[in-house]
Amino acid sequence: MRGVRFTAVLGVVLLAGITLLFVTGLLSYAAYNPDLAAVNDKTPAKGLLGFYLFDWPTGPHWLYRLTQGLHVTVGIVLVPVLLAKLWSVVPKLFALPPARSAGHALERCSVLLLVGGALFQFVTGLLNIQLEYLFPGSFYPLHFYGAWVFFAAFLIHTFLKLPRALRVLRRGLPAAQDELASPAPAAETVSRRGALAVVGAGSLLLLVTSAGRSFDGGVRQTALLTPRGGAEPGTGPNGFQINKTAAHVGVTPAETGADWRLTVVGPAGETQLSRARLLSMGQHSAALPIACVEGWSTSDQWWRGVRLRDLAALAGFPEDPPGVLVESLQRSGPFRSVALRDNQVRDPRSLLALAVNGEDLSPDHGFPARVIVPAAPGVMNTKWVSRLTFGELR
Amino acid sequence: MRVLRRWYGEGPLHLLLMVSSFALAGYAGVRLLDGDTLLILVWFVGAALVHDLVLVPLYSAADRALRVPFSRSPGLVNFVRVPLLLSGLLLLMWFPLITRHAERYEPASGMSPDRFLGNWLLITAALFAVSASWLVVRTVRARRRATKGRPSASH
């Protein structure tokens, strides 16, 4: 059952799947607008690895929900395929002699980067979505640079192996030429098809117990084993998923009470706005999701508040507002201040939200005021906003 | 060209692509290792070593042990092997949540991690139940086929 054909099938599936993971991963990095301001960039030493960066758009409003949902869910679903693929090539690990030539020795070093890289990426990703930060350092640089090391090895592996894989899948392979098949196989207990079916069943099981966490309510309940699956954390208009609770990041009721003021800074100077003052400004609505880098997301929520571009006008940019630096009351956490680009400020759906689904924001959803921007990663939608600085992103 | 083949063992394109792959991996690698270099290296290389030298031998040995009681009818082992494998896969992937090691989960999300252990056990139960019903269906069918094949006793 073990043999080149089995490996070839899994290899082709991984080629498609991992290419999708790599592309959606790069998109996720671009979605943070890392080249806009230092506060957005957790990998400032990226150099040429950020060559493809572009201004992240604000539409369609479910863009990040889709790309990051795919990134994480497909990643989860590929785990059995990856493990089966690695199992299928175990005989190569113990092949003798360890290297036939200098070229072969190089290739084996490259395979170490390939296997180490793949496992490193999957393990850091799976730990990160479970909020179990065991890995040695910040997730962002480890997963980003790790992806590039892995991808360098993945590219050459694809180049060297894909032609043979396709040939074997099309025309088959005589048993004598199958270096992965056992020379003295035990009585077969499972056929190649059977083994592929088991791998497929594993992927299907993971899909069924994960995918629901990209939706609200009843569908989320079907995500039996993934983080953020199951029943919503609360009930009512504010009952949907919370990335970080107020208590967890140390935001207290004293800071968000009647004395809270929003400071708006721009060419017009510094203005202090109370929540009542914000409520007296023009209120607008937008139906937008929260979509987390961890792959979970909510359905569209109905946000209501002041447009960011109206606040920019107040700050002294009546037309063509620039980007804005948003600061939170939050004292810890990697994105407590974040920079939004001009296209994000200008979008009429970008709000400083005061209410959601017809009710005031709850403390955990950012009371007294939070930012909500279409298509932006969840963490860019700053909660407990204390200061908006238009034009100067530092 | 022949010298290269004899010395290197592969064609020139192989060498060029290898160098370019390692150069890119090196460019990203120095950035990856900028930090707790040794520990990151241990994680990266260790992931491959732990998989190849611990996980694979472990599940291979478990599989071998599992096959022993089924040596008379080796086809039956799959009815235990497959649900066990799938259940083990889920445990491996969601270990921090199932064992409540992920201590940040509850305070951050406002959601209890209690459900994970119970759900994993229920899924495991369901997997074995599906496998059992499959076995029953297969056995009944096999018996029916056997009786049909035999000449009827009343004639």
Helices, strands, pairings?
The complex is a heterodimer of chains A (394) and B (155).
Chain A: H1 4-31, H2 63-88, H3 90-93, H4 102-129, H5 139-171, H6 192-208, H7 218-221, H8 246-249, H9 253-256, E1 262-266, E2 269-273, H10 275-280, E3 284-288, E4 301-307, H11 308-315, E5 324-328, E6 337-340, H12 342-346, E7 351-356, E8 359-360, E9 370-372, E10 385-390
Helix pairs in contact in A: 1-2, 1-5, 2-4, 2-6, 4-5
Chain B: H1 2-8, H2 12-32, H3 37-67, H4 78-93, H5 95-98, H6 105-109, H7 114-149
Helix pairs in contact in B: 4-7
Transmembrane segments (chain B): 12-32, 38-59, 79-97, 117-137
Keywords (chain B): Membrane, Transmembrane, Transmembrane helix
Please explain how this structure is put together.
The complex is a heterodimer of chains A (394) and B (155). Chain A has helices at residues 4-31, 63-88, 90-93, 102-129, 139-171, 192-208, 218-221, 246-249, 253-256, 275-280, 308-315, 342-346; strands at 262-266, 269-273, 284-288, 301-307, 324-328, 337-340, 351-356, 359-360, 370-372, 385-390. Chain A has 394 residues and is α+β, with helices and mostly antiparallel strands. Chain A has two domains: 4-208, no CATH class; 246-390, Sulfite Oxidase, Chain A, domain 2, CATH 3.90.420. Chain A has a five-stranded mixed beta sheet with strand order 2-1-10-5-6. In chain A, strands 3, 4, 7, 8 and 9 form a five-stranded antiparallel beta sheet that branches. In chain A, β5 (324-328) and β6 (337-340) form a beta hairpin. In chain A, α2 packs across α4 (102-129) and α4 crosses α5. The termini of chain A are far apart. By secondary structure, chain B is mostly helical. Chain B has two domains: 1-46, no CATH class; 56-150. Chain B has helices spanning 2-8, 12-32, 37-67, 78-93, 95-98, 105-109, 114-149. In chain B, α4 (78-93) packs antiparallel against α7. Chain B is flat, with a radius of gyration of 26 Å. The N and C termini of chain B lie far apart (82 Å). At the A-B interface, α2, α4, α5 and α6 of A face α2, α3, α4, α5 and α6 of B.
